[in-house]
Amino acid sequence: MNQEIKRLLQNPASFLVPGTGDGIAISSRIRLSRNLSCLPYPIAAGKESAARVIREAEEGCSRSKTMGRRKGLFLKMDDLDELEKLLLLERRLASNELLKSPVPSALAVSSDEKVSVMINEEDHLRLQVLTPGFELATCWKKVNTLDNELGSVMEFAWNDELGYLTECPTNVGTGMRASVMLHLPGLVMSGQIDPTIHGIRKLGLAVRGICGEGSKNTGNLYQVSNQITLGESEENIIEQLSAVIRQLIEYERRARRALLDRDRFALLDHVGRAFGLLQNSYKLSADEAIEALSALRTGVDLGLFQHLSSATVNELFLELGAGHLQMRAGLALPDPEQEVLRAKLFRSKLRERS
Amino acid sequence: MNQEIKRLLQNPASFLVPGTGDGIAISSRIRLSRNLSCLPYPIAAGKESAARVIREAEEGCSRSKTMGRRKGLFLKMDDLDELEKLLLLERRLASNELLKSPVPSALAVSSDEKVSVMINEEDHLRLQVLTPGFELATCWKKVNTLDNELGSVMEFAWNDELGYLTECPTNVGTGMRASVMLHLPGLVMSGQIDPTIHGIRKLGLAVRGICGEGSKNTGNLYQVSNQITLGESEENIIEQLSAVIRQLIEYERRARRALLDRDRFALLDHVGRAFGLLQNSYKLSADEAIEALSALRTGVDLGLFQHLSSATVNELFLELGAGHLQMRAGLALPDPEQEVLRAKLFRSKLRERS
To answer: Do A340 and B265 touch (CB under 8 A)?
Structure first.
């Protein structure tokens, strides 16, 4: 196993350490797209040019205080096997695009795992800050500092009229995408999620389910982010997004209260069955586990468990992933054996705490 | 609450006290149809005639040693409310036909609940012995003694050529129906149950699911009984039935072993999930409970539980019934509240033992 990846595995993912708030906002993220001027975008780059971007980024990160200077990780994707890549994906440090980049790509990660830079993803650089809870202001402060640090040693592609230049026109301007991951079981169970999403989209924001494919969203997790990058300041964009997030959190709170008032036993049953499943199964698919963990999280938020913390829920949310499971086992395993292993993980974690 | 019914509620149902064997044969039953000569069958009887049957039966039972003489219960159906009747049905002491009899009907129950006589069901008398496990010989000995005791003080309708006369021609002769209730999850899970049932029927025996309506058989419980009552001695009929039951038990054993060998985790998962459901739900329908209890029973049979006995499984199997639930609560409750109560029962019983 790559020694740097091993370091990651020793810690809980930074974005899942419990944040402030009531558990509805799971995590916040801001990323900035940046490109080196005078070099072609990764999609059009040759090996030479891609390698130069990696060299400059590594040099920049090693000087950046925000990246922890030389204490941070610097991973070249070509050095990693499939499991190690999957692990980075599950920790939300790398994107699918980065892993499948047609040219050599790399990833810099700060020692506390909160800050990372994807190199030769869609753009030359994607600066990213990820925190638990609803902390867009913190994210912005940190990623802005990193931007200044890197910008002082690299020349970013910039146009006086448009702002930062990016490979995809939808990122031109600030190059910023800010998002919050929300856990919205109350809105889902009470049937309010579809009109709510519709309303958010009308405000010019994007909403997408986090887990699962297509319209099926496993685990009641939604990511809300800005669409606009041009013609508004970063602070304005973040403030508008934050106002909507605050509203959504309030809607979710109300929905949960209403569910408790209307049919307390139905909600207890939903949470109890999920706990029973996770504590007693011997074969567990990732989808089932995510779905049941959502109910467990709801139970923890509502104070239904004495000996179960959101830290455990977060830990399990990360560890249930095929990448984490197989990395811990130390080998690649077929699906059925992953299911046995996943069930074992949940049994041991939930039995020791009940 | 009827004081005699109250006595029943204080004890576990006799047929569910763990018997010998490995848990595959849950209980055995033999019933004899008998009628008083010179009186019309219940379907054609007037009130006067029905009342006379009840008087004679009460008198006969009070003299019978097998019925515990005056220590036994003697219940007139007209004195009971709907919940009390449901309770008798769930304890397998009364049949639906008895409860819906067009004329006054009654039920005598021995003090140990193993022996009962339904009066003015389809026939004037239905003598019944019910035991846990695979105990047809014991049942026969006991019901035969009761038959002799009652026959010495009453005159049973008899024809020298046919034997005992009964309302329905399918009972004429011995008037005997012997049956064993089997728990066959292994044959069900391995897809062998349909051909097996087909084979049993070809041998001239009857098979029916115990719980649930129509083709859906909840809880993997099957009752196998003789069809023939004419032209064979009781002992022969019982021996032929017993041979088939022994074979079935062996098939079920093999099916369970094969399941364990082929995919141990699938079986553990089946049992574990059922346990998790029953231990953690807050709303539980009777069907769901029966289905999950079947898995629990399998787990107990296979020695998967340290602190769970078949006595607990049996107790829950009885107590989950709508009649028992409501009688314990002391009032009639709508379905949703029964589900809440049922879930509470399982939570408390399974938590104290885990």
So the answer is: yes
